[in-house]
Amino acid sequence: MRRKRFSARPYWPLALVLVSWAALAAPAAQPPLAKGPIHISADTLHAENKPSQQATYLGNVIMTQGDVVIHAHKLVIDALQGKVQTATATGSPVSFTMSSAQRHGYGDTLIYKPGTAEIVLQGDAHLWQEKNEISGQQVTYFLNSQQTAVTAAPGQRVHSVFYPAAANRSASGGRP
């Protein structure tokens, strides 16, 4: 009785997609990224403490926390008892980089939630790792787990482009 040999050849496209997706979703061995002080520079600032704690930065806004860097035209910080709840950035477009996770992205609006370590890109949203790209109406990126959720606008679809990892690199290595 002869056994039939298994051939992986017909399954290589599926393997390629899985390896490529792992390159975009694989967590790096890093400490939590949304920790430490938040630094903001801008052309102007308007802040109020009552009735709510809110600060509005305008013009060439750069916000950093850990290795997360956000660039925008306008940034509104909402705080509760001195703790930042959300940072909502707008511009054309708003962009962010995260060097340790080798990610960068942009959208019309960016909502940063330091407490839950989330970045939400809305409106023509794109997220890259190296050449790999995902896009849709909204891209939510979870910094600590490096997971991504993408939704499309009504009647539209999400899009992804994944490139196979090179043989001499790890699946999560490289630069954005």
UniProtKB/TrEMBL annotation:
Residues 39-146 form the Organic solvent tolerance-like N-terminal domain. One of its GO terms (cellular component) is outer membrane-bounded periplasmic space. PANTHER family: LIPOPOLYSACCHARIDE EXPORT SYSTEM PROTEIN LPTA. Transmembrane segments: none annotated. This is Lipopolysaccharide transport periplasmic protein LptA. NCBIfam families: outer_YhbN_LptA. One of its GO terms (molecular function) is lipopolysaccharide binding. It holds the Pfam family LptD_N. Keywords: Periplasm, Signal, Transport. It comes from Acidithiobacillus marinus. It comes from the Bacteria. InterPro entries: LPS_export_LptA, LptA, OstA-like_N. The lineage of its organism: Bacteria, Pseudomonadati, Pseudomonadota, Acidithiobacillia, Acidithiobacillales. GO terms for biological process: lipopolysaccharide transport. Residues 1-25 form the signal peptide.
